[in-house]
Structure formats: structure tokens, C-alpha cells
Here is the input.
Amino acid sequence: MRTKLLLKTFFISLVVIICQDISIAQENPGSCKVLLESISGEYTGECKDGLANGEGIASGIDVYEGKFKKGLPHGIGKYTWEDNCYYYGNWKGGKKSGIGSLYEDHTQKITKGLWKNDVFFNEIVEPPYELILKERVKGVYFFEDNTKTPHQIEFVFNSAKGPIRSVPGLKIYSNNGQTEVDRMFSGIKNVTFPLECTVEFVVKEMRRVVKFKINKASSWKITIR
Here is the structure.
């Protein structure tokens, strides 16, 4: 009986100690360090041996969200500078290394390329747009139109009666922007590129699907037949 009581007391004490350790760790997030000075202010995420390791978010003058290893960005992550420019891609030992995309806020230009030790080596040129899928449609045509509202995608459907802005059962799914569907305008406004989009509609009781990606920042009119 006494042995059982001692064992019970031991396990209760062990649980209390573990809980206290967890509480201390939660109250002292600064115990996990980030070694890159520009993002070393605050850190939330996984930790190993007192250093950021695994998934995490670090902030200081700039902000980084992604993978860490031994206190430095390592793997896939997004680094945002204080001027809202950002780099998203591969990191190695706290430096841009591998394939990544650099966004310049003042020009709204995205450059995708190959990096090594923070040095840009070669640009990877992507097509302005990519038609990924079309089901039960005759054709899909992309027209760049800078005379329209900036960063806007407009859909036009060719029918027997001529071009129309809306069709039965029209649904627009996109990874960003504001979708609008009415008789005067069907499309997406305030788009950030690259844009990934799926359009679904019904003609003669048959579901039609168009899926595409637009890489080039501009205004576009897409005609579907």
C-alpha cells in the first residue's frame, strides 16, 4: 500500500514539473533565437536547441514566414521587406538559394528565377497566360487590354445572339481578387498576379469548364466560345 502511494506521489510530482516547464517555455518565447538580425525581434514556431527550427514566423524590421534550420531561413519561405517587396521561394542558410520569385511593390513586377547565395543568376520566363483545361467549349481567347481598369479580368461569352457578359449557372473561382457577376460585367477586380481561375457555366443543360492561369500583371479580357 505504501509503495503504491509513493508511486502515485512520484507521478503527480512529475506531471507538475512537466506542466511548469511547458508554462515557462510559453511565457518565454524569446528563448528560441533567430540568427538573422533583420527578423530577430519576435519568433513564433518550432524550436530545437534554443534555435528556430521547422515551421515558424519571425519578425523584426522585416518579416519571414516559412521553414527554419538552426536559427536561419532554410527551405521554402516568404521574406517580406518593410517596403512591402517580398521574395517567396527556396532558402539555404539564411540566403536566397534555388528557385524563387521576387515581387517589387513600386512596379508590381514579379521576377521568377534562380538564386544562389543571395545572388540572382537567371530569370525563368513564364508565358503571359496558360490555358490549363477546357471542357465542352469551342475556344478560349485571351486579350491584354490596358485601357480597362488596372488589374481586372473581364469575361465575355460568345453566343448565337452575339457577345454577352453572363450565362446561366456562371461561377467564378479564383485564388484572389473580388468576383462580380451581373448582366453588365462578369469578372474579377483588384487582382494580384499570378492569378489562378476556374470558370463554370451551363449551356443546353451541359456543364462547361475553363481553367487557366495568368502570370502577367495587366488587365485582361477573356472570350469564351
Summary: The chain is about 10% helix and 55% strand. Helices lie at 2-27. The first strand starts at residue 42 and ends at 48.
